[in-house]
Structures are given as C-alpha cells and as structure tokens.
Amino acid sequence: MERKGIKLLVAFATAIVFAWSVVMVALGQVAAIAVLAPVLGLTVQQIVRALRSQPGPGAGGPVMAVPDSGEEAP
Hints:
Elements: H1 3-26, H2 30-52
Helix pairs in contact: 1-2
C-alpha cells in the first residue's frame, strides 16, 4: 500500500475512534471517555510520530564502500 493510502487509512481510523467517543459521551458514558481519553491521545501521538520518522531514500545509515574494478569485496 502506498504512503498516501496509509495516511488516509490512519486518518479514517482515527476519525472513527473519535466519533465513537462522541457517541459514548452522548449516551452518558462520560466515565468511560475519561478513562479512554489519555489512550486516544497517546495513540494519535504514536501514529503521527511513526508517519513522520520514516527516513527518505538514502538518508541515514552506514555507507558501504564499493570495491574498485578488479578488487573483490571482503
């Protein structure tokens, strides 16, 4: 799945979770939301951090030396 599709799926899932939270509050389950609110916040924070921390091609990591012609790699 390409990156844009993953972002869309994550946004959709997050919206569903928050919509469910609103429904719970509307039904009078405020205590359940009070318990789940920190979990929801942490989940969103982890998703955002995971999406931002993916390095681009060639960024970071050790670089292997390429042997000259006629030499063999160790």
